Amino acid sequence: MKQIFLGIFICLLLAQVGFSQNEWKETIDGNYASAFSKLVASQSVNKPIVIDNHTTTPLIYACKKGNVDFVKKLIEKGARVNQRAERFTPAMAAAESGCIECMNLLLAAGASLLTKSATSKTPFDYAVENGHDDLAKLILAKETRQKEDVKTQN
User: Fold this and answer.
1) CB contact at 8 A, 91 and 123
2) Range scoring the smallest mean pLDDT among 1-5, 17-21, 38-42, 68-72
3) pLDDT class for 20, splitting at 50, 70, 90?
4) How many domains does the chain contain in total?
5) By the 8 A CB rule, do 59 and 26 touch?
6) How many CA atoms lie within 13 A of 78 on its CB side?
7) CATH of the domain at 50
8) What integer best gives the mean pLDDT of the chain?
9) Highest mean pLDDT among 24-28, 29-33, 74-78, 142-146
10) Nearest to 81 by CA among 43, 122, 111
11) How far, in Å, CA of 108 to CA of 11, rounded?
12) Looking at the whole model, is its pTM more than 0.85?
């Protein structure tokens, strides 16, 4: 009998986790500001979520979708700008989507452009691959500055 109750409890728990992850996706995809505010107030903005069979974070997903308002709010709520999910960062997502405003918000919050993905790509590589030339120029300038800062710290 205990095993049945335990099984039901686990199923309910897993269903709730899946539901909250779908909430993030639907809210960001639909640009639902009021639902987004409720999610940010009630859930951790740094907790990994699974969307389309990939582990991500709300910040990475918002950058991927180019949702500047949500990126700003997530950063204000303490989203970690260098947090990785599947070795992918918010800066990589912003570069891939071509969202200059998202990138500027991330950089202002201390995002690194020197981190490499699982395939050894940097945000610069993602911007170039996706034809975002203006963003690639911005990243190159900021990346050079970050490299210089690292050298002076050593």
Assistant:
1) yes
2) 17-21
3) low
4) 1
5) no
6) 7
7) 1.25.40.20
8) 88
9) 74-78
10) 111
11) 42
12) no
Domain with 134, as residue range(s), is: 2-153
Q: Tens digits of per-residue pLDDT, 132-146? A: 999 999 999 999 889
Distance CA 24, CA 40 (A): 9
Q: How far apart are CA 43 and CA 20, in angstroms?
A: 9
Concatenated DSSP letters for the chain? Answer: -HHHHHHHHHHHHHHHHHHHHHHHHHHHHHT-HHHHHHHHHHS-TTS-EEETTEEE-HHHHHHHTT-HHHHHHHHHTT--TT--BTTB-HHHHHHHHT-HHHHHHHHHTT--S----TTS--HHHHHHHTT-HHHHHHHHHHHHHHHHHHHHH-
Contact 14, 50 (CB under 8 A): no
- Residue identified by tokens 């891939």 is 96
Cα dihedral 78, 82, 83, 87, rounded to 10, equals: 160
Mean pLDDT of 54-62: 96
CB 81, CB 110: distance < 8 Å: yes
